[in-house]
Design brief:
5 strands; 3 helices; alpha+beta; two-stranded antiparallel ribbon; about 20% strand
Length: about 130
């Protein structure tokens, strides 16, 4: 008797779960559902999500474009000040990093390998 009761309640619960289907449109706040990340984002998070949706990279979170590193096509280094410290791994399998200061103006060379770097101004979006 107890087994039949458990079996019936299990079948009823399964049928009730199949009957309650939630569409994607009913998830938004206007219908009383769970809001998406974009609907509940505020402040700086909302600005970042909007910029990423528009295809811009507000905080340089994506991999930077590759440059040749020559005098005509230097590696571009964004900075909000007029100088920045740069680390150059001169060879692919090298474990040492060569650090040097990069100043605003013309492209400068790495003291070890000779790759060119140029400082470019960068403004924060807020």
């Amino acid at each position: 008797m107890a087994a039949r009761l458990l079996l019936r309640s299990g079948l009823r619960a399964a049928a009730a779960c199949r009957a309650v289907r939630v569409s994607a449109a009913s998830r938004c706040m206007s219908t009383g559902g769970i809001p998406t990340d974009e609907e509940q984002a505020t402040g700086l998070e909302k600005v970042i999500m909007k910029a990423m949706r528009d295809g811009t990279d507000p905080y340089n979170m994506m991999k930077p474009k590759g440059y040749a590193g020559s005098k005509m096509d230097p590696h571009l280094v964004p900075s909000i000040t007029n100088k920045r410290i740069v680390g150059c791994v001169c060879e692919e399998d090298n474990t040492a990093v060569v650090w040097f200061w990069l100043h605003e103006g013309e492209a400068q060379r790495c003291p070890s390998c000779g790759a060119h770097y140029q400082l470019v101004p960068h403004e924060l979006p807020h």
